[in-house]
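[Q] Does anyone have a clean structure-token version of this?
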Amino acid sequence: MDRQIIYQNDFFNVYIDHRNVLSLKNLKGGAAVLPVTSDNKLILLNIYRAAFGKQMLEIPRGFREEGETTRLAASRELMEEISGISDHYINLGTIHPDSGIIDEELAIYLALNVTWDITKLQSEEGIKNVCLLDFSDAYRMADNGEITDSFTIAALLRSKKYLLE
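[A] Here you go.
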């Protein structure tokens, strides 16, 4: 396919093709993590997303840093966003969040027995607070459209077999 770069930074290349269609390439990769406490509560971020102009419920996620595995990226994001630590990570595989426009593969992890500090949320990233939810409530919220983030929905779907055993 014939395309040219029209913008680039350290995270993305933006292309335009011969049909005048834009696409992006994630240059760093990334990871997302569904944190679960020892009493089986899911921790979801209430985070402001400028693209939508509103708060959204999401799991922690972010770009990989140079030389970092996706598992280490998930662990780092958990620490940065909610000061969270887990003693058990389960790899839930990868997703392509929007294969029609973004060349991106993102790893998803389930983090169990998470401890965290509500006083150390990464507010500069737009995190207002967190919600502690039972899996069934979060799953219902994704099913009825209250949770619309693709990373979070994929994590809920793929973690079901681990959390409902």
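[Q] Thanks! Anything notable?
[A] The chain has one domain: 29-163.
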